[in-house]
Amino acid sequence: MEIVYEYVRVAEALARQIEAGEIPKGGRLPNERELAEVYRVSAGTVRRAVQELRARGLVATLAGKGTFVIAGAADES
């Protein structure tokens, strides 16, 4: 059995939503508190998941504005 960290599980779920177009390019991700409630994890886990999505080049975070999708299904060729 493979161990999967919670932040990876959350990041994968969000990445699937982005790739499916459920969260479109330019769309804003819910805030940390909202995501923590949805995925039943801590805000720190959500923060780490968003960090993972930034590392993958899927989202960008603007201080005081939120986290926005910068890549998605439409970008794949």
UniProtKB/TrEMBL annotation:
Q: Tell me which domain of life the UniProt entry assigns to the organism this sequence originates from.
A: Bacteria
Q: Which UniProt keywords apply?
A: DNA-binding, Transcription, Transcription regulation
The family database entries (Pfam families) matched by this protein are listed as: GntR
Its protein name is HTH gntR-type domain-containing protein
Query: PANTHER family under this entry?
Result: MANNOSYL-D-GLYCERATE TRANSPORT/METABOLISM SYSTEM REPRESSOR MNGR-RELATED, MANNOSYL-D-GLYCERATE TRANSPORT_METABOLISM SYSTEM REPRESSOR MNGR-RELATED
Q: What is the lineage of its organism?
A: Bacteria, Bacillati, Actinomycetota, Actinomycetes, Kitasatosporales
- UniProt source species: Streptomyces olivaceiscleroticus
Domain HTH gntR-type, by residue range, is 4-72
InterPro entries, sorted: Bact_HTH_transcr_reg, Tscrpt_reg_HTH_GntR, WH-like_DNA-bd_sf, WH_DNA-bd_sf
